[in-house]
Amino acid sequence: xxxxxxxxxxxxxxxxxxxxxxxxxxxxxxxxxxxxxxxxxxxxxxxxxxxxxxxxxxxxxxxxxxxxxxxxxxxxxxxxxxxxxxxxxxxxxxxxxxxxxxxxxxxxxxxxxxxxxxxxxxxxxxxxxxxxxxxxxxx
Length: 139
Known about the structure:
Shape: globular
CATH topology: YaeB-like fold
Radius of gyration: 14 Å
């Protein structure tokens, strides 16, 4: 059982969902591995939230193994973990202070996924959709 409750920002949930769907379209096995890796990362983060390097706005970044994604999170004063972004490595280059600050002002919601213990709502966001379109146009 996880020591700290994990809350995903709405946008982070949408980013996770878009990434999961991208992998699912190409390989159900890859999508399941992606989900398992996010679950592994969340377990590590909840066990030792201060382990990863401190970034702007008291956030930390966890680089997923075998997938080009970074979980951007912060530990709240009540000990809960708040995931602010599930960002593709290429997107983290454009994840500016202003956009992160805007994310921090928006409400969060906890969620639970039946396979991993975390719920993720079904929605997409333009930034990952744009990445998908760029990838498809290269083929």
